[in-house]
Amino acid sequence: MTEIPHMYGVLHGLHELYFLAPDRPVEMGLSADLRRELLALPRGTKVGIESTPDIDFPIYTKEGSFTLDDSTTGYWRRVEEFCTLHDLEVVFLDDMELLTAAAKKQVKSQKLTQELLDGYDDDADFWRLRRASYEAEIDSRIIHEILRERKIAENIKLLRPDVVIIGKGHGDLFATSKRVRTQLGLEILRYDSERIPDDDEPITFETSISQVEKTDRRLLIRAFHGVKDGRISPKRTPAYIGVFQTAGVYTPEEGVFEVYPDQSGQFSGTISDTFGDATFSGAITGETVQFDKRYIPERAKETAIGRTLQYTGQMKGDAYIGNYEAGMGYGNFILVPYSENMNTKEFLDRSIQEI
After folding, report:
1. Model confidence pLDDT, tens digit, residues 176-221
2. CB of 259 closer than 8 Å to CB of 238
3. What is the helix (H) or strand (E) element at residue 309, kind and residue range?
4. How many C-beta neighbours within 10 Å does residue 117 have?
5. DSSP summary character for residue 69
């Protein structure tokens, strides 16, 4: 294990939210707390930062060239300049090749979404564009979050910085997940994480570290399996597998879910999907299925529906097909018994036709 004497999780890019308008990136500077910490370091201290020397270089695609979001790259330039000014040795931990690969996938996703907004020929064309856009988005996140993380860990072990300054998302995950630290071969002796401020408050270090990043990482891996395997947890065996849908909002890969009954003898237990884990209870017969589902807050996205979802369906052919509702929200679903030899990707394709 490589020890990191001190790691900082920093806010290097935020977006302001506007009603009925696009988000606007906010240019970030070093917080007063981080400046004080860096000024206290002895001259010559080696500081590793989540950046590369060529972060401002253009990225070329078939559609033209672009550069990475200046609201983020500008922050790392300011960190580098501050450290250099105060005689701290800067080493770069990021990888431009992976940044480029992630950015190209994101551009592909955005291009497909724009094609969809510009108009589609029929339902088949709608789902082709929608699913391809979602897959490119998940691929981009896997590269940007997981593959870059591995490369950053490799560079930490190679360059042995005394201090690491890294984005809050990666830092909080490292600090809260022993499994991730073990996989990457890192141990953090001290960690400080910046807190997202309210309104015009200054950025300060948090007194406790959120577990949100652990949950988000687990759900990103589920989303990846949804796209590649048509599953949520390929190493587990559910009793049933299903897909929920709300008027084209979710692709089948987003809406796939797996049902794991408990040992009570009743139709109750847990449901796992790309939004999190939920408890459920109800009844199932050869003709009908009915159950209530509620997400477990600490094991679900912050955006997961907080109220009880009520599912009701009837057997049609070999599948239960019906609808679900939660207050003003509603949608449709399909549910079938799971078998080890079923083609789950074909099942996702089928769900488009039947719900």
Report:
1. 999 999 999 999 999 999 998 887 788 999 988 989 999 999 999 9
2. yes
3. strand 309-316
4. 9
5. -
Residue with tokens 């996205």: 301
Return d(Cα 78, Cα 69) in angstroms, integer.
15
How many angstroms separate the CA atoms of 9 and 172, rounded? Answer: 7
| pLDDT tens per residue, range 270-281 | 999 999 999 999
Angle 52-57-61 (CA atoms, 0-180°, nearest 5)? 120
Q: How far apart are CA 255 and CA 242, in angstroms?
A: 8
Two tokens, residue 200: 């015009």
pTM of the model: 0.91
Domains observed in the chain: 2-210 (no CATH), 230-354 (2.40.128)
Distance separating alpha carbons of residues 94 and 153, to the nearest angstrom = 9
* Whether the Cβ atoms of residue 159 and residue 4 lie closer than 8 Å to each other: no
The torsion defined by the Cα of 43, 46, 51 and 54, in degrees rounded to 10, comes to 80
Give the SS3 label for residue 27. coil
Take residue 227 and report the two structure tokens written for it.
């796209």
- Residues composing the chain: 355
What residue type is 49 in one-letter code? I
How many CA atoms are closer than 13 Å to the CA of 226, on its beta-carbon side? 31
133-to-113, 129, 313, 342 alpha-carbon distances in Å = 6, 6, 30, 26
Q: What does 109-166 look like in DSSP terms, one character per residue?
A: HHHHHHHHHH--SSHHHHHHHHHHHHHHHHHHHIIIIIIHHHHHHHHHHHH--SEEEE
Q: Which residues of 35-62 are buried (b: 16+ CB within 10 A; e: fewer)?
A: eebbeebeeebbbbbbbbeebeeebeee
